[in-house]
Design a protein that fits this description.
Chain B: One of its GO terms (molecular function) is ATP hydrolysis activity. Chain B: One of its GO terms (cellular component) is plasma membrane. Chain B: InterPro entries: AAA+_ATPase, ABC_Ni/Peptide_Import, ABC_transporter-like_ATP-bd, ABC_transporter-like_CS, Oligopep_ABC_C, P-loop_NTPase. Chain B: Keywords: ATP-binding, Cell membrane, Membrane, Nucleotide-binding, Transport. The complex is a heterodimer of chains A (273) and B (322). Chain A is an alpha/beta fold and 273 residues long. Chain A has a domain at 7-19 and 32-113 and 176-268: Rossmann fold. Chain A has helices at 59-66, 89-98, 106-109, 116-126, 133-144, 160-172, 190-207, 218-224, 242-247, 252-260, 264-268; strands at 10-20, 32-43, 48-52, 74-79, 82-83, 99-102, 178-182, 210-214, 227-232, 235-240. In chain A, β7, α7 and β8 (210-214) form a beta-alpha-beta unit. In chain A, α4 (116-126) runs parallel beside α6, α5 packs across α6 and α6 packs parallel to α7. The longest helix of chain A is centred in the last third of the chain and has 18 residues, at 190-207. Chain A is globular. In chain B, 33% of the residues lie in helices and 20% in strands. In chain B, α4 (106-117) crosses α5. Chain B has a domain at 96-167. In chain B, the strands form 2 sheets. A 6-stranded mixed sheet of chain B has the order 6-7-8-3-9-10, sandwiched between helices. In chain B, strands 2-1-4-5 form a 4-stranded antiparallel sheet, covered by helices on one side. Chain B is built from 12 helices and 10 strands. The chains are: A alpha/beta (273), B alpha/beta (322). Chain A binds chain B through residues 54-55, 159-162, 189-195, 197-198, 201, 216-220, 222-223, 226, 241, 243-244, 246-247, 256-257, 259-268, 272-273, and chain B through 40-41, 183-188, 191-192, 195, 210-218, 236-237, 240-241, 250-259, 261, 263, 265, 267-273, 275-276. Bound molecules: adenosine-5'-triphosphate, adenosine-5'-diphosphate, iron/sulfur cluster and magnesium ion (2 copies). The site of adenosine-5'-diphosphate has 12 residues of chain B, from α1. Adenosine-5'-triphosphate binds at residues 19, 35, 53, 55-61 of chain A.
Chain lengths: 273, 322
């Protein structure tokens, strides 16, 4: 057996996914297009990996397969060395607890009528996790830097940044090994965005968490992750260290993304547009 | 003879009941000038913009002076304001879907604006609308003109909105987060078009956004808004290169950039603790004091006014050593 330096917790291997297209006429053969095309993608413990690409490139579709929401038509999803879709029920159960998701808009992902405490306990019930949930609740609040008083309150009493912390707390409740975050800071102000990014980085380090992170702001991805994949029209076209990749892009799709970036500095130099 | 400014705002106050979302805002935007209004969400940017357009929500009051086109817009009647909107002053909103008519073809909607405000025939209005779509770099303009809003992409809808805003050569366009909902690659294209079109027509632009790079790309001056007040105002170059207000400093420090990220992951982004205060619970003195590391007793007790350095702050950030 060869020793590999990388030992991913969660990996996609050769995943291809197609969706049917609307027929143009009754007699035209049904056609389909590949949303994902032979994708290899993985994440290790304590590692933050980024995924960037223009709108419609397939990022969200990739995350749906990564968290087991959609079954790949071709290729495999591997968690801790086992194929998730041919795993035993016990292994599936462990996968479902271990891979959690954080979404873009915390306001729409939390039930407005549910107290925060109840919302945080919800995944414990739906995943049928046993043990001292209240103790876990306090641990997680501490990890994300929220006060106990938050538990009694309702979502409308919080700012966007605080709600995103709460959404991250909920994802952490089942003690996952991997967090998948699809545009988790896109709805936040820069000032608040920075709080959430720092939190995510601390969690990766302190909890040895694997993080899959999607954002359209390349600097945000570079700050948060140590490896990034660029996806274009369903294919991974380039992988690398983010700062290096974004300063010296080689693939055309990466260059397009880099060219579209506006920075304060370029603006002040009159070179932004 | 010099033309009067595109807009002159004195001590604008906007709110409902005893609560004010805008608390004494003043600025002047010359003809063809570019001003950015920046701040976290909830700081009062949109309420400022809506008041300037005579579109404050029902039940809200607006006071102060807003001089534009020889009149005080605060005292303008609803009927004369609706004749003015789209003609001397127009607005581009963040969400184009909410301001486009879903059941009318987009080409007709542009032509409607032209037809309403200038005395040209329907046919001539349609021709001008198509010209505008060409200027907006729309692919297949004739075909797109016949589309309904739901049949075109977000970036295309926003370009239609900009075309409508430009149609009658207004003196001023107010753009409230015009590219926030767009993909980055589309954002740059839309900004370029807005930039060129406003320049060619000498139209003044008030760009409202929480996105600092957008301001740096588009504007000459910037006003930073916090809790309903302008806390710093000056040329973009000065304010962004050496901010004097701690809030501006905090916003700039929160912005990750490729060159302040260490490859080994050791860099740490600055962030502003806490959040924008709600209207019913504004802090005393400098409203930013609960989030400011430099706050003193004086900051908690007395509200600072904008000073000669362009910042409303009792203990301004030291100027950066060159
Ligand atoms: N259920 C579906 N049926 C048909 N097509 C779909 C379906 N889901 C996604 N697609 C298409 O697959 C492509 C990829 O979509 P996806 O949501 O993964 O993009 P994305 O990279 O996340 O984009 P964005 O940055 O806008 O969120 C798009 O062309 C989309 O229209
Ligand atoms: N319809 C409304 N009713 C009550 N308060 C509102 C309404 N719209 C905005 N506000 C309040 O007014 C303040 C300024 O809001 P706004 O101008 O929308 O901020 P911005 O555009 O800077 O994000 C905020 O405190 C906000 O909560
Ligand atoms: S006035 Fe005081 S609290 Fe306000 S920004 Fe200046 S130092 Fe900070
Ligand atoms: Mg997506
Ligand atoms: Mg707003």
């Amino acid at each position: 057996m060869t020793l590999s330096t990388r030992d991913p917790i969660l990996a996609m291997q050769g995943v291809t996914q197609s969706y049917g297209l609307q027929r143009t006429s009754l007699f035209a053969p049904p056609s389909s297009f590949k949303v994902l095309d032979s994708i290899d993608f993985d994440v290790c413990a304590g590692e933050a990996v980024g995924l960037v690409g223009e709108s419609g490139a397939g990022k969200t579709t990739l995350t749906r397969i990564l968290i087991g929401m959609e079954r790949p038509q071709q290729g495999r999803l591997i968690f801790e060395g086992n194929d998730v879709w041919s795993a035993t029920p016990a292994e599936r159960e462990r996968f479902r607890r271990s891979v959690q998701m954080v979404l873009q808009n915390p306001r729409s992902s939390l039930d407005p009528r549910m107290r925060i405490g109840t919302a945080l306990l919800e995944p414990m019930r739906s995943l049928r996790i046993e043990g001292d949930h209240i103790k876990r609740l306090h641990e997680v609040l501490e990890q994300v830097g929220l006060d106990k008083s938050a538990l009694e309150r309702f979502p409308h009493e919080f700012s966007g940044g605080q709600l995103q912390r709460i959404a991250i707390a909920r994802a952490l409740m089942p003690n996952p090994r991997v967090l998948v975050a699809d545009e988790p800071v896109s709805a936040l102000d820069v000032s608040i965005q920075a709080q959430v990014l720092n939190l995510l980085r601390d969690l990766v380090r302190d909890l040895n968490l694997g993080l899959v992170f999607i954002a359209h702001d390349l600097s945000v991805v570079a700050y948060t992750t140590s490896r990034v994949s660029v996806i274009a029209a369903g294919r991974i076209v380039e992988v690398g260290q983010p700062v290096e990749l974004f300063t010296r892009p080689t693939a055309a799709a990466t260059r397009n993304l880099v060219d579209a970036v506006l920075t304060v500095e370029a603006g002040l130099e009159g070179k932004a547009l | 003879m010099t033309l009067a400014p595109a807009i002159e705002v004195h001590d604008l106050v906007v709110g409902y009941d005893a609560l004010n979302a805008v608390r004494g805002v003043s600025f002047t935007l010359p003809r063809g000038g570019r001003m950015g209004l920046v701040g976290e969400s909830g700081s009062g940017k949109s309420m400022t913009a809506l008041a300037l357009m005579g579109l404050s929500p029902t039940g809200w009051h607006a006071a102060g002076q807003v001089l534009h086109d020889g009149v005080d817009l605060i005292t303008e009647t609803d009927t004369s304001f609706s004749k003015r909107r789209g003609r001397t002053i127009s607005m581009v909103f963040q969400d184009p879907m909410s301001s486009l008519n879903p059941v009318r073809r987009v080409g007709d909607q542009i032509a409607d604006v032209i037809h309403r405000h200038s005395k040209v025939s329907r046919r001539e209005a349609m021709k001008q609308a198509l010209d505008l779509m060409v200027q907006m770099n729309m692919p297949r303009p004739e075909q797109l003109a016949r589309s309904y809003p739901h049949q075109i992409s977000g970036g295309q809808k926003q370009r239609i909105m900009i075309a409508m805003a430009l149609a009658c050569y207004p003196q001023l366009i107010i753009a409230d987060e015009p590219t926030t909902a767009l993909d980055v690659t589309v954002q740059k294209q839309v900004l370029r078009l807005l930039n060129a079109a406003a320049r060619d027509r000498n139209t003044a632009l008030l760009m409202i956004t929480h996105d600092l790079p957008v301001i740096a790309a588009m504007c000459d001056t910037v006003a930073v808004m916090y809790a309903g007040r302008i806390v710093e105002h000056g040329p973009v170059q000065e304010v962004f290169r050496s901010p004097r207000h701690h809030y501006t400093r905090g916003l700039l420090d929160s912005q990750p950039t490729m060159d302040n990220i260490a490859l080994d992951g050791s860099s740490r982004l600055g962030s502003i603790p806490g959040m924008v205060p709600p209207l019913h619970n504004l802090p005393t003195g400098c409203a930013f004091h609960p989030r400011c590391a430099a706050a003193s007793e004086k900051c908690r007790a007395e509200m600072p006014e904008l000073g000669a350095n362009g910042a409303a702050c009792w203990h301004p950030v030291k100027e950066k050593a060159e």
